[in-house]
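re: ur question from yesterday

yeah so i grabbed the chain u mentioned. its 159 aa long if i counted rite. heres the sequnce exactly as i have it in my notes:
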Amino acid sequence: MGRTQLTGDQIKDGHIYREDINTQTTGKALITKLIIGAGLDIQSTGIDSGTGDVTISVDSTSLSEWTVVIAENDYSAVHKNHIFLDGTGVINITLPSSPSTGDRIKVTDFSGLMTTYNAVINRNGNNIMGLAENFNIDLNYVTCVFVYIDSTRGWGIEF
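ran it thru and got these structure tokens back, copy pasting raw so excuse formatting
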């Protein structure tokens, strides 16, 4: 009985890229692949004819650190939101009023309309880049990550 092992470059974007994965075996076979930290577990059992079941388990809490939100209208963000802007008008995104150091909010224009319809990031009482001003997103397809630093500097921005 041979042993088949998957390597990292054979698993991409949730798909297995391995043409010879359905190899014939004699006896009972068990293939297990656990991607540490990614929350993905693949198990395959086979019997004499090489047939068997494949089970793929995904722990979604560890697979992605972000909670995806599609915002067509105004939205109040919470820590770890990834907000995809998809509106045909100005969208107001309100940052949390009592953030903790390290809190993150990611905002992405995936409609490609922000030069026409801006998104206003409402600071909700905290500074953004040390300024007591809201922030406008007016570039198409841009992604901004707002990271809370402290009560003086407020939210920093990663592009």
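noticed a couple things. The chain is about 5% helix and 40% strand. also Residues 40 and 83 are 24 Å apart (CA to CA).
anyway ttyl
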